[in-house]
Write a structure and sequence with these properties.
Elements: H1 27-39, E1 46-49, H2 56-65, E2 74-78, H3 84-92, H4 109-112, E3 117-121, H5 131-140, E4 142-144, E5 151-153, E6 157-162, H6 166-171, H7 177-183, E7 186-189, H8 200-215, H9 224-232, H10 238-252, H11 264-293, H12 304-308, H13 312-322, H14 337-346
Parallel strand pairs: 1-6, 1-7, 2-3, 3-6
Antiparallel strand pairs: 4-5
Helix pairs in contact: 5-7, 8-10, 9-11
């Protein structure tokens, strides 16, 4: 159930399957995907920024899938998950004996991604001492393995991602400015899930179906109050948090009904809010009905206030609170027939 406006064509359809994991039709998400369509065919470096759990790797893979490099490797590195003293070797490789423990030659991720795309996740965690070498390979497309003087040339398109504010890090001298500008040729900002709440029902149904098949459980009903609670939650962990909570709910489900996996205090808050909204709508409907029946006359024995058993001042207060105001009467201007005939003869519409 992809929302991506892919331009599928013949035998290239397989490479669009990755878009099936990008769920939603919100304006915020569509704006991102339009940027993906624009930058994917180019060789420009892309910097994907957004909160943790917003799907930065999925967007990076989408860029690769619709680029001319789609049939070449997509290699990913989580720069925050690799110890700093091993990161250089991981990126650029090393020769046997380059350091203690280097018992054999190692090919780095840049070489593995030759002709393809290298995804540098959490690029803000790359140490300052390694950044000049990364800048060089981005600019010159060449590097040396650790323990070697032989220069290797590669053809790699780099897509990076981070949840950090790199611009602020540059100001604090925590990240090289020249590297930041080289990575940030084409920025893509991912919206948090709370900014595209209209996508939550589609995401919930997708994950319910996915984990239902994986676990072997049929979940046929998602109660309205459960969906309302999920939509009203702030989702600090974004799509990843939603995915994990839905997986838990599928495991706990009974009789094909999805339980609400959110904390009980949030459920109670949503329930109270829902009841208040329902009461508000009922009040509004009753007042409008009484006003229509009274010809929008508020006071007097035949007025709307009397029909509702309210004081005139109380009804005024409720109308103001509910945003009810008397509709403006439509003004009709009588136009002479000869004027209409004259206007009709000169019209070019």
């Amino acid at each position: 159930m992809a929302s991506f406006k892919s331009i599928r064509c013949g035998d290239q359809e397989d490479r669009y399957r990755q878009f099936d994991q990008i769920i939603g039709r919100s304006a915020a998400l569509e704006a991102v995907l339009e940027k993906v369509e624009l930058v994917a065919p180019t060789t420009s470096t892309v910097l994907i920024q957004g909160e943790t759990g917003t799907g930065k790797e999925l967007v990076a893979k989408a860029i690769h899938n619709i680029s001319p490099r789609y049939d070449s490797p997509f290699v990913k590195v989580n720069c925050a998950a690799i110890p700093l003293d091993l990161l250089e070797s991981e990126l650029f490789g090393h020769e046997r004996g380059a350091f203690t423990g280097a018992i054999s030659q190692k090919i780095g991720r840049f070489e593995l991604a030759h002709k393809g795309t290298l995804f540098l996740d959490e690029v803000g965690d790359i140490p300052l001492c390694l950044q000049p070498k990364l800048l060089r390979v981005l600019q010159e497309q060449e590097f040396e393995r650790l323990g070697s003087t032989q220069t290797h040339r590669v053809d790699v398109r780099v897509v990076s991602a981070t949840h950090r504010d790199l611009e602020l890090m540059v100001k604090r001298s925590e990240f090289r400015g020249d590297l930041y500008y080289r990575l940030n040729v084409f920025p893509v900002q991912l919206p948090p899930l709370r900014a595209r709440a209209e996508d939550i029902p589609a995401l919930v149904r997708y994950f319910v179906d996915f984990y239902g098949r994986q676990i072997g459980k049929r979940v046929e009903q998602i109660p309205e109050e459960t969906m309302l609670a999920l939509r009203s939650y702030d989702w600090p962990g974004n799509v990843r948090e939603l995915q994990n909570l839905v997986q838990r709910a599928v495991i706990l489900s009974h009789d094909g009904v999805l339980p609400n996996p959110l904390p009980s205090n949030h459920v109670e808050t949503v329930t109270v809010t829902s009841r208040s909204a329902a009461i508000r709508e009922v009040d509004r409907a009753l007042i409008l009905q009484a006003l229509d029946a009274a010809g929008w006359m508020i006071g007097g024995p035949e007025g709307a206030a009397a029909k509702l058993g309210l004081k005139r001042t109380t009804l005024f207060y409720k109308m103001k609170k509910l945003g009810i105001s008397r509709p403006t009467p439509t003004c009709r201007v009588k136009v002479p027939a000869e004027a209409l005939e004259s206007a009709g003869s000169s019209s070019t519409l």
